[in-house]
Backbone:
DNA sequence: GCATAATACTTGCATATGCAAGTATATCGG
DNA sequence: CCGATATACTTGCATATGCAAGTATTATGC
């Protein structure tokens, strides 16, 4: 295993799996939220009018359209998001971040920040963090998925 | 969003999602393998005697024990792995990499390398790759999950 | 030694997700 | 304008996964 691209891809995937596993437990216990639901809210909050179509969400989250449909249903019932039709195109069904969703996201963000802190704690200093941030920025820069 | 730990965690998760999505399509089409099945084989290949208990696999893959049980069943049927009991502890059921599994993994590794190459292509040079590798090595170093 | 606790694995049930097909609407070419 | 095609979303079905409970075996405390 000498190829640095392979090594980096493996390490990225494994690191992400570890972070995701930690987050899943915390989000579920503290907010009754899944990691993907958190990201859905993040994408909405990041969007111009706090709203996105389902296909846009699917692309940004790297999941299928049907997954978005089924994720949104319970979130809508709980009042975190609203459904909004488009005046010009009757096919579109926007998912809109509600006030309750915004509050929920605010709380979840704190948990995320805490976990992110724990994760890097004791292993990385500010210089490392800045270095990684700059490296990854080039990977996510072009992507519509970028949340940062 | 000023906390560099938060930014890095978000970018790591999103980057990994993108890589994983690409791999999933390729692995499924080319090898009839899921990304997690690939990692299971990688962990076995990485282990001292090409074998691990199910709980060890579960820990290293950040999945539940039941998931390992159910992942292994079809892989065993296809001959990629064998089941092996422990002489001292009758509870243990090792998963062993078979010759067929080793071949399969070899092919899948090539696909992985190709995809990893595409992913970093045009965006990163060797210096960047080395830098990231060094940064991530500290994150995965302590972990038993480390494949690199 | 033996009862209790811990560990390894499996299984029932519920949820999550993708793919393919179905429905509704919009766009395009003539 | 109209049929063919494309797009947005939903739904049926199959697979993947976690949690909790169940079974079998081993370790621990007395």
Residues:
């Amino acid at each position: 295993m000498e190829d640095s691209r392979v090594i980096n891809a493996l390490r990225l995937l494994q690191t992400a799996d570890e972070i995701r596993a930690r987050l899943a437990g915390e989000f579920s216990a503290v907010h009754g939220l899944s990691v993907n639901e958190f990201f859905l809210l993040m994408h909405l909050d990041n969007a111009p009018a706090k709203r996105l179509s389902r296909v846009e969400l699917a692309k940004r989250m790297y999941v299928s359209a049907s997954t978005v449909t089924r994720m949104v249903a319970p979130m809508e019932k709980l009042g975190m998001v609203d459904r909004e039709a488009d005046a010009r195109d009757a096919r579109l069904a926007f998912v809109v971040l509600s006030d309750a969703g915004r509050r929920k996201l605010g709380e979840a963000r704190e948990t995320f920040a805490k976990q992110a802190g724990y994760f890097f704690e004791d292993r990385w200093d500010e210089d490392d963090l800045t270095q990684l941030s700059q490296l990854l920025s080039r990977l996510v820069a072009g992507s519509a998925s970028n949340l940062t």
Summary: Residues 34, 36, 63-64, 66-67, 70-71, 88-92 of chain B lie near DNA strand D (CB under 10 Å from a C1'). The first strand of chain B starts at residue 51 and ends at 52. Chain B has a mean pLDDT of 94. DSSP finds six helices and three strands in chain B.
